[in-house]
Amino acid sequence: MAFSSYKDIGKVLQEFQVTYTATNFMGATDFNIPDYFREDLEFMLREAVVDNSEFAVCENLIYPVLKEVWKSYHTKFVLWSHKSLTCNQNLYGFPEYILAKRSPLGKFVFEKPYFLLVEAKQDKFDEGWAQCLAEMVAVEKLNDELKLTVFGIVSNGATWQFGKLEGQTFTQNTTPYTIYELDKLFAAVNYVFQQCEIQLNELLTA
After folding, report:
1. Residue 146 and residue 113: Cα distance in Å, rounded?
2. Strand 19-23, strand 169-173: pairing
3. Is 118 in contact with 155 (CB distance < 8 Å)?
4. Do residues 21 and 169 lie in contact, with contact meaning Cβ atoms separated by under 8 Å?
5. Which pTM value belongs to this model?
6. Which of 55, 119, 195, 197 is most buried, judged by most C-beta within 10 A?
7. Which residues pair with 162 in a beta bridge?
8. List of domains in the chain
9. Residue 206: pLDDT over 80
10. Is the distance from CB of 92 to CB of 85 less than 8 angstroms?
C-alpha cells in the first residue's frame, strides 16, 4: 500500500520484521552556514507563516536546509523532491525528499542507490516515522544486495529527528535537533550527507 497509509511504526516494524533500537549514533561535521541563509531564515521565521501545512514546512524550513548542504555534494548526488518511488504493491508513494546517486547520464535519471529519505509532518512524529521507515524499507529492497545504511529524517520544520536502517535493524537517534540551534542542525545534516558520500565512494572503488 502507499507509504502514506502507514500510520503506526509498530505495525511497520512487525510487517517487515525490523527491530527497533534507540541511541545517539549521530556525529557532527561542521558546516559553514552562509550569512544570507541565516538572514533569510530569521526573516521567514519572523514575518512568514512557515508551518501551516506540510507543504509550507517543506518549502520554507526543510528544503532550504537540505539544499544548502546538498550543494557541497551535488557532483555525486541528486536531491529529488516528491519523486515517485515504487518497490512493489505494498511499498510505493512520494517521499518528500530522496537523496540518490547522480547518474552518469545526467540529473534527470533517477538512479540507484538511494541513501536518504525525508518526511515532513505537522508534529505527528510517530506517524511520520511509520511512513519514513516504510520508505526506508522500500529503498533497502530497491538497493538490492548492496547492504547500505539508509538514513531517514522526520521533521516538522522546527524539530528534526534522525534514524538509520541497517539490514533489519532500525535505530532512531535519541536526541532531536532544532532549527533554532542552526549550527548543530547543519552539522547533523552534513554528517548524514557525509556518511552517504563515504558509502558511495566505497561502492565506486569496490
Report:
1. 8
2. parallel
3. yes
4. yes
5. 0.96
6. 119
7. 153
8. 3-205 (3.90.1570.30)
9. no
10. yes
Pairing between β-strand 177-178 and β-strand 77-81 as defined by DSSP bridges: unpaired
Cell 565506486: give the residue.
204
The whole-number pLDDT of residue 177 equals 98
Distance CA 174, CA 166 (A): 17
Question: 115-130 pLDDT, tens per residue?
Answer: 999 999 988 899 999 9
Element (H, E) at 99: strand 97-103
The band of 90, judged by pLDDT with boundaries at 50, 70 and 90, is: confident
> pLDDT-derived band of residue 8, with 50, 70 and 90 as boundaries?
very high
Sole residue written with cell 541565516: 38
**Cα 173 from Cα 184, distance rounded (Å):** 14
